[in-house]
């Protein structure tokens, strides 16, 4: 391996900057292909500005709900599309909790970007780059990027720049920890597929360790105590999935320790606070019946084997899942753009960053500026998806009017401003029960359903929302398999 690493060490230096390297030797055919397809001059390393006779280039930062919907709907006959993201897939987050306990397999909730927009792999001017954006230079229409590496023993990150005609910032948000000590070190978030994989690995590991002869009873209780912090939809859905797993699989296949495993859900206020009061009370009752212990409290400190609450009480745990909402990422905080209330990138009624030209921000990283008189929208998948669809339509209209290239939209009619209408909220609570709350807002009137009919609606709705027919097939088969033979409890 050391010989291979030495062989692959960067050996070609770009004329732009002696610190910028190509991760292959100058004689390699890969380098020849790169130099043939991408501009690398003395003034520029990466992708240079498009020419008037070329298709304008749209650079999208992120592969979440907002970015991928925009990529899906953009007209690739008039635009080249470049996606920059540290992951090459979109995660169908509403079903992510189900993968943690084996109800669904991980590939069922991950959709490759190249399947969402085939032009990325088929058209020479469109690409996906496994990288993070480190800075945006709106004056020169440039984004600075750095490749994602596989740990300290891999190749050094390769820095490069991309010129854009239109920039879509859809980089999402980070999990909120509220500055609580020990969260990043000891808790597992539930936002990515690798988070779900780690939760499943840890859960099954603790189950097997607790069955080892000689393990003290108190240690068994700690290993098998699963604590979820955050009573929003994600935390509640994971708690429901976990209780189902315990009642239907652990009790059958880990009979020796079935009486030790428990789930505790900790929330500072009310669980599912955005739902109708009647639905919230129903959720509390059902979760309690399923064996989930509900605790109202504020976490003060997180230690390797226990939580310290603000009242001084201690909560030992073997698995800690953190699901307390999201906040602006470090990347968003460092951008020199005006910010909306809460620290997101400030946008106008058309989802543009008004202080610069040709830059849009959508999804969890963006919020309306106070000057618009509009409230910052919640960090929901349906908000992000709707914004991505809107910007794609806007840019398609702009291109047809001749404003696709940089600095060319001043005299173009971009249409009506973005309007968001809430379609309602859904959450599953386990035991074939769910909540459906179809209202424009918490104080508005509307339809609210609970129980088995809501669970059927929840599954049907999300099955139709899964992007590809391939993944819909996977999800349907996984659900059927779980119903007939139980969940997969193999530790891989």
UniProtKB/TrEMBL annotation:
Residues 422-488 form the External alternative NADH-ubiquinone oxidoreductase-like C-terminal domain. Keywords: FAD, Flavoprotein, Membrane, Mitochondrion, Mitochondrion inner membrane, NAD, NADP, Oxidoreductase, Peroxisome, Transit peptide. It is found in: Mitochondrion inner membrane; Peroxisome. The keyword Flavoprotein applies. It is a peripheral membrane protein. Belongs to the NADH dehydrogenase family. This is NADH:ubiquinone reductase (non-electrogenic). It comes from Saponaria officinalis.
């Amino acid at each position: 391996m050391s010989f291979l690493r030495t062989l692959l060490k960067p050996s070609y230096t770009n004329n732009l900057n002696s610190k910028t390297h190509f991760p292959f030797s100058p004689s390699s055919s890969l380098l020849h292909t790169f130099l043939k397809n991408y501009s690398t001059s003395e003034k520029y390393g990466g992708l240079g500005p498009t020419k008037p006779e070329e298709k304008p280039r749209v650079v999208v930062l992120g592969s979440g709900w907002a970015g991928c919907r925009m990529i899906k709907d953009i007209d690739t006959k008039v635009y080249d599309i470049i996606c920059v993201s540290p992951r090459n897939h979109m995660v169908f987050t509403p079903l992510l909790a189900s993968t943690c306990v084996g109800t669904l397999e991980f590939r069922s909730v991950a959709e490759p970007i190249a399947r969402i927009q085939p032009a990325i792999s088929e058209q020479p001017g469109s690409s996906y780059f496994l990288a993070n954006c480190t800075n945006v230079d709106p004056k020169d229409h440039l984004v600075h990027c750095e490749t994602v590496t596989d740990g300290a023993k891999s190749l050094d990150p390769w820095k490069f720049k991309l010129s854009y005609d239109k920039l879509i910032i859809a980089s999402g948000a980070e999990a909120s920890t509220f500055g609580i000590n020990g969260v990043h070190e000891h808790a597992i978030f539930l936002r990515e597929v690798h988070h779900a994989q780690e939760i499943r690995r840890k859960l099954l590991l603790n189950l097997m360790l607790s069955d080892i002869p000689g393990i003290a009873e108190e240690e068994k209780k700690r290993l098998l105590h699963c604590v979820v912090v955050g009573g929003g939809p994600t935390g509640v859905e994971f708690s429901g999935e976990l209780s189902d797993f315990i009642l239907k699989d652990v009790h059958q296949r880990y009979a020796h320790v079935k009486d030790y495993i428990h789930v505790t859900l900790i929330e500072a206020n009310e669980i599912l606070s955005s739902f109708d009061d009647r639905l919230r009370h129903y959720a509390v009752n059902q979760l309690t019946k399923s064996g989930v212990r509900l605790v109202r409290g504020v976490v003060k400190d997180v230690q390797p084997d226990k939580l310290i609450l603000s009242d001084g009480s201690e909560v030992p745990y073997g698995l800690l899942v953190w699901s307390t909402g999201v906040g602006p990422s470090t990347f968003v905080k460092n951008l020199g753009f005006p910010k909306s209330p809460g620290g997101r990138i400030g946008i106008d009624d058309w989802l543009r960053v008004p202080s610069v030209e040709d830059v849009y921000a959508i999804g969890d990283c963006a919020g309306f500026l106070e000057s618009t008189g509009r409230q910052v929208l919640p960090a929901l998948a349906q908000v992000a998806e709707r914004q991505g669809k809107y910007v794609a339509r806007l840019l398609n209209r702009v291109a047809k009017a001749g404003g696709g290239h940089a600095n060319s939209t001043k005299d173009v009619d971009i249409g009506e401003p973005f309007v968001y209408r809430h379609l309602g909220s859904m959450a599953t609570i386990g035991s074939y029960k769910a909540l459906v709350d179809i209202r424009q807002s918490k104080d508005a009137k509307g339809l609210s359903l609970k129980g088995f009919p809501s669970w059927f609606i929840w599954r049907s709705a999300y099955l139709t929302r899964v992007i590809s027919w391939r993944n819909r097939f996977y999800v349907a088969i996984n659900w059927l398999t779980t119903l007939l033979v139980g969940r997969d409890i193999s530790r891989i």
